[in-house]
Amino acid sequence: MTLASPALTRAIKDRFAHVDSCPFTGPRIFFENAGGALTLHSVVETSAKFAAIPDNQGRDNPASQALTAVIKRAKADMALFFNAPDGQFFVGESGTELTFRLIRTAIMGTPPGGKVIGSSVEHPASRSAALHWAGVAGKEYVNVAHDDATGQVTAQAYAAAMTPEVQVATILHTSPVTGIANDVAAIVSAIRGVAPEAFIIVDGIQHASHGGIDIASYDIDGYVVSPYKVFSRHGYGVAWASDRLTALSIETLKDGPAGNWEMGTRDTGAYATFTDVVSYFDWLGGETSDATDPRARIEAAGQAIHVHEQSLTDAMLNGVDNLPGLADLPGVTIIGGRENPNREGLVCFALDHVAADEIVEQLNAQGIRTHIRRADHYSGNILNPLGLKAAVRVSLCHYNTHEEVRSLLAAMKDIAG
């Protein structure tokens, strides 16, 4: 069954809160998923359940033991979802905080001298962390320029900048501005071909909701996601660290358990709500395939999500029925280009005769939620080279439909005309 099936579309939507309406403004189409995806009903229920429990882990009572079991299961579910048979998972304040922590550990834990390499396409979560801690440690930061036309950084670009002195590398899986994914495995291969012992940290925050994470195939040392962007809630991030990264001098309590990344008492509800996310992918893979193995169902869900979202972005760019696509509007710039096979559920565009903030405002007035990206510290690395002060980001997920795309295109036809 495809995700475009009416029955499955309804079943999917029924699992999410506020799927067709905003609790503040009423009915609306949600095309702001890159800013935070919709939340599963199960996550809301689980959050409330664990928020009410007064007990903590590590006590000699049944409630404490039950909480510990929930965390243990969640870590196993994370390993299944990310396909990470070794290393360890832990939660923190946010994806950004965890990205800083992993990068700080790698940079400060490597010998003096050396280099840190990253790309200009990266979100400031990884780029700021790498620049800051490289400066503190006295290591040279090497910038790999992304391609302005495609919004992507390639393995070849990394290879051209690599030297054996590189000790730490950062990679962005998918850009929250362009929506274009980078080939993590190929970039890692380019890095390790020159500096095989480098520590490699990947920002997977934007990529996670679109399915298809396979840590076992990447040969990396860290991977971070923000669960509120993958159907969970705000207030925590999830990180995976390789055993060799954990073997460095990590920040932990003196005389505490060796290799323990967790700081203080954990939020059991955070772990439990990620189990809800994994269970959802498992269910979706069962609806879209005949797979019986849980990992196979998760992979099937990711494949179905990719196919459906590609169909939606193709319609958004190229038009449907008698409605012109965004790429056919007068004076349009499509960031990343019209034909880009690496696009994941996001189209970012600008018009030369209608300001981005005006477009967002007019779409909001018609019940279509999008977002403006300005040439600031979040998006200036992408927009400034294109000569754009701002752009409109239309970001979708697999619960969005072709009917919603038609509504967007009809509204944009009037706005641009």
TrEMBL record:
<keyword id="KW-0663">Pyridoxal phosphate</keyword>
<dbReference type="InterPro" id="IPR015422">
    <property type="entry name" value="PyrdxlP-dep_Trfase_small"/>
</dbReference>
<dbReference type="InterPro" id="IPR015424">
    <property type="entry name" value="PyrdxlP-dep_Trfase"/>
</dbReference>
<feature type="domain" description="Aminotransferase class V">
    <location>
        <begin position="29"/>
        <end position="408"/>
    </location>
</feature>
<dbReference type="InterPro" id="IPR000192">
    <property type="entry name" value="Aminotrans_V_dom"/>
</dbReference>
<dbReference type="InterPro" id="IPR015421">
    <property type="entry name" value="PyrdxlP-dep_Trfase_major"/>
</dbReference>
<dbReference type="Pfam" id="PF00266">
    <property type="entry name" value="Aminotran_5"/>
</dbReference>
<protein>
    <submittedName>
        <fullName>Cysteine desulfurase-like protein</fullName>
    </submittedName>
</protein>
